[in-house]
Amino acid sequence: MRLTHASVAAAAVASTLGAAWVALETDRSSHRVLLAVFGAVVSLSFAGSGLHAWIRQPRNRLGPLMILISVAWSTSMLFFANGALVYTIGQALRPLFVVGLLYLLLSFPTGRLATTYERTLVGSMLVVLLPLQIVWMLPAEGDPVLCKGCPRNLLEVQRDDHLTHVIGAFQGAAGTLVLFAAVVVLVRRWRASGAAERRAIAPVAVVGGVLMVAAVLVSANFAAGSPLGFLPLLIAWCAFAVLPVAIVAMLVQRRLARTAIAGLVIDLGDRPKHMALRDALARALGDPSLDLVYWAAETGRYVDAQGGPAALPDAGGARVVTAVQRGGEPAAALVHDRALLENPELIDSVCAAAALALENERLQAELRSRLAELQASRARLVEAADAERVRIERDLHDGAQQRLVSIAMALGLAEARFAHDAEAARPILREARDGLALALEELRELSRGILPGILTERGLTAALGELSNRASVPVRLSSSIDGRLPEHVEAAAYFLVSEALANVAKHSHASSARIHASVDDGVLAVDIEDDGIGGAAIGGGSGLRGLTDRVEALGGRLTVSSPPGRGTVVRAEIPCA
Amino acid sequence: MRVVVADDSVILREGLARLLQEVGVEVVGLAGDGDELLALVEELQPDVAIVDIRMPPTHTDEGLQAVRKIRERWPGMGILVLSQYVRPSYAVELLSGGSEGVGYLLKDRVSDLGELASSVRRVAEGGSVLDPSVVSQLVSRPNGPRALLESLSEREVEVLAAMAEGLSNKAIGERLWISGNTVEKHVKSIFGKLQLPASEDDHRRVLAVIRFLDAS
User: Fold this and answer.
1) Is the separation of the CB atoms in A223 and A169 below 8 Å?
2) Residue A341 has pLDDT above 70, yes or no
3) Cα–Cα separations (whole angstroms), residue A152 to A89, A147, A266
4) Which candidate, B112, B104, B108, places its Cα nearest to that of B78?
């Protein structure tokens, strides 16, 4: 509790004690203790509730307003004073707390009057009850006109009982009118409010409603010369005493609502699959009409759960939109009852929880899609490796192995002939030697397909040079790579260029191609560009799918730009870490 | 003796034909795949068909499929299967339909003209020929019949391998420089130790030995 709070509390307690003392000392009532206790209860309940609200919700004006009402109420108790001066002050300021009360009810629950009409009502009430009260007292002698047994009215100028009566009747009628208008405002507001708002303000609304009706009756009764006696006043007083309790009840309920956030977080953490996020949020906010809409960044608008455009309520209606932010970007929005705005902490917490849950959902979806992509890519890599093995086995079987068997056959034949005609063996041996040369050549070709020797010996630039020289179209190679890169990076880049050049030969109808290779910031970038017909795509039998997997397995990226008629650019970026 | 050669590689089938002619075998027809082989066999009725396993169109085991058909329709015809790899499972499959007149050799073996000639002759006469590497693969299998084989003496293992290759007692004796009686004694001992049904028939015992080696 800060110093301001403490001093205000002290002032409220002091005024309460002062009023109670006045009540205990009064000559005009036989129920002094009752009067004092009742006055103190009302005063302290307003002051205590006000202080509570002020500390809990500094932005809300209800707290200070209730403290003012407490002081105004204590001031009105001065009416019971035996001394002329204090009595006169009490009598003059007696209706002030009614103005505060009107303000309280109209501005509930923010403590701020929202419309000009409401401000006009409160202003009118202030005029009717303060200046007119003083005007009313000018022609009135204290006893017996103003009240029985009252001290002298210090404001009396010249006694005129008729004038006093007229002014009093006017004051009563005008006050009744304003109160009635205020009741109409409150009734309409109640009827326009949503379920959540009604639930939140129900205790205050009930007590306030009784109080207002009673106040109208008191006013009308006074104007009509008190045919109902003290009954309306009694009802009004009781409602009045209970009102701060109702307000405190509302505040406590709000705190309970905040504990709903804890429930929400538990709900979200342990949410059964079928429980939609919306339902969990609706439960936490106590607003069954809650809507959750998602922000679609591509279109820049909110969409519903099915992805259709979401209809948002108009500004100023009973339902409002609160955006759920994630990292400064809109992620979703809650469409909820306006009343929930009165509890910004609750809304903030729910938005934060919703942002967490949405982020969680998004991450999970992203993870699932990445996992699926990873599994597919892994399967493709395995398939590619298997296909490569089959190809190598086939190449060996149909190539070098066959040659070697035929050489063995030739040698067998030569051996057989050698015994009886050495000269006859000579052409067969030559044949075997030629076959051996072919077998070696085939083995070289095969091993180059597995991993070219020049790549392991001289590195990427030299290997790309060899690829360029063997390409089917003229290729211009520019490479700024001097040293060696990690083996797997060199191999991936080599096979990428090899495959891309094969595509150039097979599909592109290009007349020339360009290869550019460089390393920037530890990332190898390789571009293969041709001037062919374009229209190439990853997949579609170009062999680029397998290379994409290979590049991505190294944490790199492969992009193909191939507009029809404007050539093809294959670009790979592979981190060299 | 008249043979048909089936191999999808032109170099190999021409080379093989030349070798066969060198050792006095008449090559009456050359085929590039299983269907061609069946047509030639039907037309020419050779004494022996020499067949490559892997041939078009699927490059898997067309040769074996063609061999199965030949043995169903012309059971007396000699079959010599050649391949760049030998697999024990193929050997068992080949021998299952009866081991008479069946041979299965690595292609490399043909460079030894003497062995080629004797193999072709053996299958033509109804004998069986199995590549030594089949036996060694079976014997060296990590989960093979170790315990039982370990009960065999070194000499008995040599005799077992020779039996598995399809050699007759006489041929085993010649290879190992031992007398026919000694071979017979070893064979009896082997069959006893391995608990195989004794068989006087050279052909049937090949299958028995191979099955034993393959199954245990």
Assistant:
1) yes
2) yes
3) 12, 10, 68
4) B104
Render pLDDT for A533-551 as a digit per residue (tens, 0 to 9).
988 877 766 677 888 888 8
CA A18 – CA A78 distance, rounded (Å): 8
Kindly provide the residue ranges of all beta strands, DSSP E only, lying in A481-521, ordered along the sequence: 513-520
Confidence of residue A26 (pLDDT cuts 50, 70, 90): confident
Distance between CA atoms of A489 and A163, rounded to whole angstroms?
Answer: 106
Of B12, B15, B113, the CB nearest to A416: B113
Adjacent-strand bridge partners of A296: A301
Cα torsion through B55, B61, B63, B66, rounded to 10: -120
Burial A316-343, CB ≥16 within 10 A → b, else e: eeebbebebebeeeebbbbbbbbbbebb
Question: Testing the interface with B: which of A409, A413, A420, A438 to mutate, by most B Cβ within 10 A?
Answer: A409
- Given this model, what pLDDT does residue B146 score? 67
For A149-195, write each residue's pLDDT tens digit: 788 888 888 888 888 888 888 888 888 898 889 888 888 888 877 66
The DSSP bridge partners found for residue B80 are B50, B103
Note the Cα A251 to chain centre separation in Å: 25
- Find which of B8, B10, B11 to mutate to test the A interface (most A CBs within 10 Å of its CB): B11
The region of weakest confidence among A435-449, B179-193, B194-208 is: B194-208
Size of interface A-B (CB pairs under 8 A): 48
Instruction: For chain A, give the longest Cα–Cα distance.
Output: 167
How far is the C-alpha of B48 from the C-alpha of B1, rounded, in Å? 8
Confidence of residue B208 (pLDDT cuts 50, 70, 90): confident
SS3 at position B54: coil
Whether the CB-CB separation of B84 and B56 falls below 8 Å is answered with no
User: Measured between beta carbons, which residues in chain B are less than 8 angstroms from residue A417?
Assistant: 22
CA closest to B11 among chain A residues: A406
Instruction: Look up residue B65 and give its two tokens.
Output: 């499929």
pLDDT digits over A142-157, tens only?
665 667 778 888 888 8
Question: Cβ distance A563 to A528 under 8 Å?
Answer: no
As a whole number, mean pLDDT of residues A312-317 equals 80
What CA–CA distances, in Å, run from B39 to B28, B31, B46, B89? 13, 9, 12, 27
- Please name the residue ranges forming H helices in chain B: 10-22, 34-44, 62-73, 88-96, 113-124, 132-139, 146-150, 154-164, 169-176, 180-193, 202-215
Q: Would the CB atoms of A401 and B22 count as touching at under 8 Å?
A: no
Is residue A284 within 8 Å of residue A260, measured between CB atoms? yes
CA distance A339 to A108: 11
DSSP annotation of A109 reads T
Q: How far apart are CA B169 and CA A467, in angstroms?
A: 61
Chain B residues touching residue A415 (CB < 8 angstroms): 113
Map tokens 């041939």 to a residue: B55
Q: Is the dihedral of CA A19, A20, A25, A26 positive or negative?
A: positive
Residue A337, SS3?
strand
Q: Would the CB atoms of A401 and B84 count as touching at under 8 Å?
A: yes
Residue A517: CB partners within 8 Å, gap ≥ 6?
A: A460, A461, A464, A477, A478, A479, A480, A481, A493, A524, A525, A526, A527
Q: Is the pLDDT of residue A384 over 90?
A: no
Which tokens hold the place of A442?
């085939």
Which residues does B contribute to its contact with A (CB < 8 Å)?
9, 11-12, 15-16, 18-19, 22-23, 54, 59, 84, 107-108, 110-113, 116
pLDDT at A148: 72
